Amino acid sequence: MLELAILGLLHEAPMHGYELRKRLHILLGAFRAFSYGSLYPTLRRMQRAGLIAEEADVAELADRTWGRRARRVYRLTAEGKERFAELLANAGPQTWEDDRFGVHMAFFSRTPADVRMRILEGRRRRVEERREGLRAALARAGEQIDRYTRELHRMGLESTEREVRWLNELIAREQAEQRDRDG
Amino acid sequence: MLELAILGLLHEAPMHGYELRKRLHILLGAFRAFSYGSLYPTLRRMQRAGLIAEEADVAELADRTWGRRARRVYRLTAEGKERFAELLANAGPQTWEDDRFGVHMAFFSRTPADVRMRILEGRRRRVEERREGLRAALARAGEQIDRYTRELHRMGLESTEREVRWLNELIAREQAEQRDRDG
DNA sequence: AGATGATTATATCGCCGCGATACATCCGAA
DNA sequence: TTCGGATGTATCGCGGCGATATAATCATCT
């Protein structure tokens, strides 16, 4: 997940960890955080795996006389680009889970149209399932359920209903564009 | 988190892991899952910590001639009950984060009224912050932002706005009840 | 000029929880 | 009768979090 997001962001420009985290926060702030406690170890791992590489960052070094490396600026390697494309193209069942879906959607512009569609439809199915579960829970219990739990379920139901409507619009739009491309 | 939920559920009746998981799914299904991969290790840990204890489950054993223990039924210990009350009473800043908030709210009936209020207000503040962040992101970028990201932000903004309204209602209701109790 | 606090920046540690996987029983339906 | 689906417990590796440490830079107030 973090890996996908980092690859996506570095696709635009080389960046250091702190900057990545800020951009991540703006890009995904609606539904995902990512702490430094995951970011820095992930950068290390990706570097070891050869997906990203540390830039010499010459200008930065020239400015600093005390010889201490203040920033680690990373750039995508060729393998990193490959990996990114691969991750975007292979949409699996976990792709439509809460946390992953948003990250994938944030990079839809770089995702093939058919994969976009698969993800949107998969997500819709997933949210519809949850919606039905909530409907059942609300219907089943009737009066005997705890009132706060019911309030929680009611809110959840409304949210899922709204998300399904939202997804329907997105899917319709995608289909319209597909038609435009074809005909 | 899981610990809190388990303590809350076992407060009603002794249960085995599988049953706990099902109840968990119904109770928190709107926003939280909890897999067996977390459940069973957590039960072990809680047992070691003395928060829960394994029941003899006599009826179950009598049924089974092959001598194999099929179910591990757990019950709350006195310490477990203490711990539960403690966890409910001590509402901290992480209590209003996405995942924790729902779990806490699911046990509001057992939570002191003043703590309920603190949690609801804390949550509201938290969601308002996110809402402002999303508004800023949407305003700032104007046209240059990626269209899918914008769609994501739009959806996020609507959700946060709705949740704030929902919380306002809940808070108002709590206040009304507080007045009823006082006057 | 000096203090002070916010921001920038990297890093690690222990813990929580997830997904995959394994294994075994029980039950109903084809 | 076999076979899939529920019931039931368990473990492993890893992704990610929150807390925490450290330190330089920059703006602001006095």
Automatic annotation (TrEMBL), chains A, B:
Ribosomal protein in keyword set:
no
List the coiled-coil residues. 117-177
> What is one Pfam family matched by this protein?
PadR
GO molecular function annotations of the record: DNA binding
* Entry superkingdom: Bacteria
Transcription regulator PadR N-terminal domain residues are 6-86
| Keywords recorded for this protein, A-Z | Coiled coil, DNA-binding
Note whether DNA-binding occurs among the keywords: yes
Known InterPro entries for this protein?
Metal_resp_DNA-bind_regulator, Tscrpt_reg_PadR_N, WH-like_DNA-bd_sf, WH_DNA-bd_sf
Which protein are we looking at? Answer: DNA-binding transcriptional regulator, PadR family
